[in-house]
Amino acid sequence: MQLNKIYKTTKQAECLVTVTSEHEALIWKLPEETPLALVFNGLTYAIMLCTPNNIEDFVRGFSLTEKIVLDINQIKKIEIEERNQGIEAQIQIDQQRFKALEIAMSRRNLPGRSCGVCGLDSELEFFEAVTSMYSEALLVDKNTIQTALTQFEELQMLRASNKSVHGAGWALLSGEVIELREDVGRHVAVDKLIGALKSNNADLFSGFMIVSSRCSYDIALKAARSGMRAIISLSAPTAFAHRKALEANITLYTVTKSGVFKISPPLSPNI
What we know:
The chain has helices at residues 55-65, 95-108, 142-155, 157-162, 186-199, 217-226, 239-247; strands at residues 12-19, 24-31, 34-40, 43-50, 75-83, 86-93, 166-172, 177-183, 207-214, 230-235, 251-256, 259-262. It is of the alpha/beta class. It has a six-stranded mixed β-sheet, with helices on both faces. The protein has a four-stranded mixed β-sheet with strand order 4-3-6-5. A two-stranded antiparallel sheet has the order 1-2. A hairpin with a 4-residue loop joins strand 1 (12-19) and strand 2 (24-31). Helix 1 packs across helix 5 (186-199), helix 5 (186-199) runs parallel beside helix 6 (217-226) and helix 6 (217-226) runs parallel beside helix 7 (239-247). 35% of the residues are buried. Mean pLDDT is 85; it is low at 1-9, 111-116 and 267-271.
């Protein structure tokens, strides 16, 4: 079990935690939550909160899943600058994609257009259909999933020390976890993972993603846009995420105390 790319850890604050049931003190390390400004060709697109590690992976994954670029090669340069109270990512992208971004942002900034979600100027965009990249869904053997889950837990180094960050990992169909990223935000962890996978030209046809949270709409959408075929979440997905996954032909599994379960299509079309 060896990760393709060892990811950097980050500074954490130590905190005294009292376990009241046993009346003993433990030292936990609390993860940082840092503002990150995403600046594309000099234009500030968004300010996110994230764990300050693997920022370039996040920039690449976010740019792809938010459709700022359509291919990782359209990102020409990334410069990370640490500020006193945050981080700024200066990103140079293909000029044609930047023009499309400018148009999208001009619409988003019109009065009454913003719905409060990054990159969207209308709530109707939530319901845009996602085209499946594959004709067949991926079915993963439950023993393979259990093998991957064991490795996934062992590789969450930040979570082991602070008990609170989310993880997103990529496993081969053998069950081997080859990439993992962590962050205080579950969707940020997913973008970091996608950025790392795309940088390494990973084969997303023959593997599956594990997330330490529920599978929400945004996670299903990011998986679809990056070309994934299956998601294993440690909590059940939302109904909206399930519908989005069905559109993209992504198989969803959830993990409970009783085992691993595949989420089947709903019996009612209204669910």
